[in-house]
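Sequence decides. Consider this:

===
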Amino acid sequence: MTHDEEPVISVITPAYNSEVFIKETIQSVLDQTYSDWEMIIVDDRSKDNTVSLIKEMMDKDARIRLIELEKNSGSAVARNTAIEHSKGRYIAFLDSDDSWFPEKLERQLKFMQDEDVAFSFTEYVRTLEDGTETDYISKAPETVDWDALMKRCVIGCLTVMIDTEKTGEVRMVDIRTRQDYALWLSLTRQGHTAYGLQEVLAKYRVVGDSISSNKWKAAKRNWYVFRHIEGQNLPKALWYFGHYAVIAIKDLIKYKIVVNRRAGSRNSGR
């Protein structure tokens, strides 16, 4: 890609106090086998060295761009700001503590073009905070519609790619968390089926104090999405929330078993 050409894929990355992981995240984009991309990082008024580390990585590659918000505004504003400044037909999301396998963009773009789809996601592996991979793979069903998504969000934000030429303008609802889930629901409600590429192409880092790791907060936010964004009446909201709660508890138990097994094997090897 020459500097005069517009990128095909815009990578959307919000960042806040991400100095521990941001370089690894950016490097995973630099390592992509597909090169026709831009990475737009929006810093949400970090208080650590996040910005200086991003600038250090920018010196390596002009495809990385940085936007600094004037005040802390949350992930939705940061992502929307990045989207507004994007130039690519396709947008892909990658948070500042997650990473991709090298063939992620190439494999997913080919999948979308071959299947002629507007909205896709892939499988991903969960890692511990130190980056150690677990055996916990989040599987991708072949397709997901609105009703299935209301019962369970199987779509990891770090795996999503959207063809904006097919969907039109994309924006996230301005809420502190679950704004990505609300966008997936909006897209499927509009008739854009989500297609799953059944390959593990991303790494989701479970950070102990991340907002998404607090299951109670996540449950409350899901309820808010059901009632106030999707506009479900009380019986319908309870119906969908019941499905969500049962699956969330099962997932939490499964993840703890995987982590404890991994910790046990590490301790036995000492």
Summary: The chain has a mean pLDDT of 88. The chain is about 40% helix and 20% strand. The longest strand covers residues 194-205. The CA atoms of residues 216 and 222 lie 10 Å apart.
